[in-house]
Design a protein that fits this description.
Structural class of chain A: alpha+beta
Largest sheet of chain A: 2 strands, antiparallel
Distance between the termini of chain B: 20 Å
Helix content of chain B: 25-40%
Distance between the termini of chain A: 35 Å
Strand order of the largest sheet of chain B: 3-2-1-7-19
Radius of gyration of chain A: 15 Å
Oligomer: heterodimer
Largest sheet of chain B: 5 strands, parallel
Helix content of chain A: 25-40%
Strand content of chain B: 25-35%
């Protein structure tokens, strides 16, 4: 299973990920490239990064009444914008605030790159706040980060 | 080889079939439904009525969905259960033997206590065939009356008004969209509806359908007022379709009573979706003691999650349902309308504000130091999911009321909010691989 982990304690709100996302959406010819598929809340460290984590048993998928949200075999939670009816059930249930409402549909991160590669947002983050990979690797990274913080606080 | 029978193929029945097949590729699964399979989305019927979604998009599962899960589909009505012999009896007198049974029979539309409902031109807006009939009748309708101003009713009024057909919307409660919105949010929607030319009759109900030659010519209200119409649409809600279970002696209160594993009072028989009276989530229990109160909470998300729990348990896993949450959302003429948890009559504190200039209403209800309800109409809705997660988890948000009201994202600034967000993003969430 793939996912993206956000170590938002590291995020300094520089906005590089947003720019990287917009540029990639433009390059891929996706609709609304001017809207990044993630958002940064706050102006300094730690800032909150609102980004799809591709949850297992994703509540947005369970709540979707139109069939716009689907889960791939690899565990990516994907959104078909043209099928969305903008009912907002997904938005009302996303625990991460990772779904954005636009004019005709909602929009979210589908993970834009093939499995095993790093998305432009992840590559762009110099603070290491975004980590992509399988569940095992993310679990490891998360544990290491927790330990690091505990040591740092003492 | 285990034999599984599932009655009902909408959200809950389909989720149960998928979950059971994922865990057990040997068992036989028979899906009994008197509606089309693969499922169509009942929630999309409003958008279909509005003309924004075509017939082909109502069915969003692939055509080969039953085959891909190796399901046997019986497209007919189940008319009785023989619990002792473990058999479902269908309309064509087929006997379907089962070891495990899921009752996902959904709900049936409520009708008002009015005379003359059998007349031509009286159409409940509940099933696909009914909505299709209503759409056909709308083409030649000159005046329409809609009873019931819930989510479906207001969207139907929007649809009729958009065709420039005079329409009267009747609601028995004190305001439109009761149960989902408070009076302030509803007042705003009422203004919008009136602006589109919808005639509102609030606090009223239809007592008689007036007809000539078997066709509707109008309705009589309890106030004595007469409203002329040639099409009368009914959308006052639905009640659990629990007749099969009741007749078989399974415990039924409002719906079929189930425990956290979705099992009914009969061993090996499960119920899920709009027919099930299931435990409420932790936050909705309001400290009601060790055994959580049960309630029928009909919405798509609860139906999918209940169906999945039933499917896993009947396949031999031991999975507990996390509990139902009252949560609903819809769009009215592009305006997002979202409601979670407690919406009215909270005895705790509430923060509500209508910003006319910005076209946004938000109301948060708190009880002690917990968030118990959210209403959001319009505005930036990206943080509503974070707020609803606070409602579901019963997180302590002491001292965070004001920043939370400003934005759910402000949670990350406080210690306990950070802990909540961190616990949500834990990799365990990712590891709970689809089973």
């Amino acid at each position: 299973m793939e996912g993206i982990l956000v170590l938002w304690e590291r995020c300094n709100a520089c906005g590089d990920c947003l720019a990287a996302c917009r540029a990639e959406m433009e390059r891929l010819g996706e609709p609304l490239p001017q809207i990044a598929r993630l958002a940064v809340w706050g102006r300094e460290r730690p800032a909150y990064v609102a980004l799809c984590r591709h949850c297992a048993e994703a509540p947005c998928h369970d709540a979707c009444i139109s069939g716009a949200i689907s889960v791939t075999g690899a565990g990516r939670v994907e959104l078909a914008e043209e099928t969305c009816v903008r009912c907002c059930m997904c938005l009302a249930h996303c625990p991460f605030g990772a779904i954005t409402l636009v004019q005709d549909h909602v929009i979210k991160c589908d993970i834009c790159t093939p499995a095993g590669t790093q998305s432009p947002c992840v590559q762009s983050c110099e603070e290491g706040a975004l980590v992509a990979g399988g569940a095992q690797r993310l679990s490891l990274v998360r544990g290491r980060e927790r330990a690091r913080q505990r040591v740092g606080r003492r | 080889m285990k034999r599984v029978a599932i009655i009902g193929a909408s959200a809950a029945g389909a989720a149960a079939a998928e979950a059971a097949r994922r865990l057990d590729d040997e068992c036989s699964i028979t899906l009994i439904s008197d509606e089309p399979v693969p499922l169509y989305s009942r929630c999309l019927l409003s958008d279909y009525f509005l003309g924004q979604v075509g017939r082909e998009r109502l069915t969003f599962q692939p055509k080969d969905w039953p085959r891909s899960l190796d399901l046997e589909v019986l497209q007919e009505r189940a008319i009785a259960l023989d619990l002792a012999a473990g058999r479902v009896i269908t309309q064509s007198d087929r006997r379907v033997a089962y070891d495990r049974l899921v009752l996902a029979t959904g709900a049936l539309p409520l009708m008002p206590a009015a005379r003359g409902l059998e007349m031509d031109g009286v159409v409940p807006l509940y099933r696909l065939d009914q909505v299709t009939a209503a759409l056909g009748a709308l083409a030649s309708a000159r005046r329409v009356v809609i009873q019931g101003a819930g989510k479906v009713g207001v969207k139907a009024a929007e649809a009729v008004a958009a065709r420039r057909i005079p329409v009267t919307l009747i609601e028995q409660a004190a305001h439109v969209v009761p149960g989902m919105l408070d009076s302030a949010a509803a007042a705003w929607l009422e203004e919008l509806l009136t602006g589109w030319g919808v005639q509102l009759e609030i606090g009223a109900t239809v007592t008689e359908v007036v007809s000539r030659n078997g066709r509707v010519t109008g309705v009589e209200l309890d106030s004595g007022q007469h409203v002329a119409c040639d099409l009368f649409l009914v959308t006052i809600g639905a009640y659990p379709n629990a007749a099969l279970a009741r007749a078989a002696g399974i415990e039924v209160r409002e719906g079929i009573v189930v425990d956290a594993s979705m099992q009914t009072s009969a061993e090996g028989v499960y119920a899920a979706g709009d027919v099930a009276e299931a435990p409420l989530s932790a936050s909705e229990r309001h400290g009601a003691g060790p055994s959580p109160p049960k309630q029928v909470v009909g919405n798509w998300l609860n139906a999918v999650q209940q169906g999945r729990v039933a499917g896993r348990n009947l396949a031999g896993r031991q999975v507990a349902y996390s509990g139902s949450v009252r949560a609903n959302a819809f769009g009215l003429a592009g305006l997002p309308v979202i409601s979670v948890g407690e919406v009215e009559g909270s005895d705790g504190q509430s923060w509500g504000q209508l910003d006319r200039a910005a076209q946004v209403y938000r109301r948060l209800a708190f009880q002690d130091s917990r968030l118990t309800g959210v209403i959001q109409v319009g505005g930036d809705v990206a943080d509503v999911g974070i707020l609803s997660t606070c409602v579901k988890s019963g997180t302590d948000v002491a001292g965070l009321q004001e920043p939370l009201f400003a934005s759910g994202f402000s949670l990350f600034r406080g210690q306990q909010g950070r802990r909540l967000l961190a616990s949500q993003s834990s990799p365990q969430r990712l590891e709970r691989v689809h089973q």
